[in-house]
Structure formats: C-alpha cells, structure tokens
Specification:
single chain; 169 residues; two-stranded antiparallel ribbon; 8 helices; 2 strands
Length: 169
C-alpha cells in the first residue's frame, strides 16, 4: 500500500502546477516541493507520536499546498521582502484556483505562518502543520546543504519512497 503522502502528492501533481514547486528554493538548497513533502510527512509522524486525532487527508493536502505560492521568493523583488507575511494568501489563492479545498485545508494554508500572520490556526491539523513547518524550516535553514540527505539514504520506513516520487514528477 502506498504511503498516504505519496497518494496525495500524485493526485495533486496530476491536476495542477505543483511540479513547478521543485524549481523554487525554499530554505538552504531545499526546494519548495521537497519542503512541503517533508512537512506533510513529519506532520503525520508528529500527530501519531503525540496521539492526536486528525483528518489525515486534510492534513496531508494542506501541508502539501501550504507553500503553493509558485514564485521564487529569493528573486530580489521589492514585494518579496515581506514574503513571510504575504505568501500564505498567495498560496491559498493559487490552491483555490486549482483545487476544491476543505475548510481545514484552507485554514492550514492561510494560517501556517502564525504568529507572523495575525490569525492563529483554527484546527488541530493547522496547528500541527504550523509547528512542523517551523521545525522543517529551521532544519533546512541551518543544515543548508542537502537537508534531507540522511532521510534520502534511509532504508527503513517510507522516506526513501517519498523523495523518489518527487524526483519522478
């Protein structure tokens, strides 16, 4: 059976511009796509480790789309200087154009940058993604080069399959 992140990743990539996220760097040398896959994967791991009940599909889809802003925020344009405050709105607008979203998915995308954005997350799935996104972002920023190299080499679990799927799309 395919990992649920892989299933959602394939479904979303077939009907959207999701593949474009691989060409944009998020933090360090990690692409936006790899970052969102890591956030989705570790959000599930965190929720299950903590014993939190959650809507799995909403959490995964929201995590995969939370940075669906589809531009290079490192391009030096003046408006990108406040990217941390504005990209959730851009990601939500793009996601709403390409997908039918649940309220939980919308909340994840819109509020994942709390406290930079004023409104806090409203659902437990949103809080999970908000926290895990911060963790992954810090890891990618300070690790800098090939942040998920250790995961890529792991034989156990579904990590290897997750990242091989990214390379295939």
């Amino acid at each position: 059976m395919k990992h649920p992140v892989i299933r959602c990743l394939k479904e979303l990539s077939e009907q959207s511009k999701l593949r474009r996220m691989e060409s944009f760097i998020q933090h360090g040398d990690t692409s936006c796509l790899k970052h969102t896959v890591a956030v989705a994967y570790y959000s599930i791991r965190f929720a299950e480790f903590m014993g939190i009940k959650y809507k799995k599909t909403d959490l995964i889809r929201g995590a995969l789309l939370h940075d669906y802003f589809l531009y290079d925020w490192h391009d030096g344009k003046k408006e990108r200087k406040i990217h941390g405050f504005t990209h959730p709105t851009a990601a939500l607008l793009n996601a709403e154009k390409d997908f039918s979203l649940t309220d939980t998915e919308r909340d994840i995308i819109k509020n994942h940058m709390f406290p930079l954005t004023i409104m806090p997350p409203k659902t437990r799935e949103s809080w999970i993604v908000c926290l895990v996104d911060k963790y992954c972002s810090l890891y990618e920023t300070f690790k800098r080069n090939n942040a998920y190299n250790r995961i890529n080499r792991r034989k156990a679990g579904n990590c290897l399959e997750l990242y091989s799927v990214i390379k295939a799309i």
